[in-house]
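Extended Data, panel c. Modelled sequence:
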Amino acid sequence: MEKKNIGFNIVNKRKGHQPNEYGLGSLSLENISPVVIDVEAMTAVVDIGALHARSTVEKGIKFTTDKAEVPEGKLFWLVWVTVDEGAKGSFYTGVTACEMLIDAEAKRGYKNLAEHVNRMDKSMKRQIIVEHMDEKSKTVLMEFLQGFDATMWANSDEKLHEVLQKK
């Protein structure tokens, strides 16, 4: 898999803790990146547009919350990947996945926006939720994370390794 120009964001730690400091306690998306997996093509790419529901595959698509309305939908996964910094260096710390079905020809798609937002939040809270993904998709995700940065993969929690390597 080819590395893209846009990469994972690394946490920028704040030093100051002044009570009136501007932005203190605000939500920062600096350490989270959306990875879109095309299951059919077996590819994964970082697509920053997904932070605002404007990934390449989502553009021009009218979404519904009813899967039955997208019978010819192609499966995609939006995976929220949070990166943190530890003693050994950077590592993948939160990884959560959300399903999308997209019929590009009909310009229709299925996704549960509330689930996408909640999974992004859970990724930022350092949770790993990928058990509901099919094995093929887990393999694509694992290979992408390993290929993007082998050291970050090696530094990551064993739980992530185990859940993505289960067959």
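The chain has four helices and seven strands. This feature is highlighted in the accompanying rendering.
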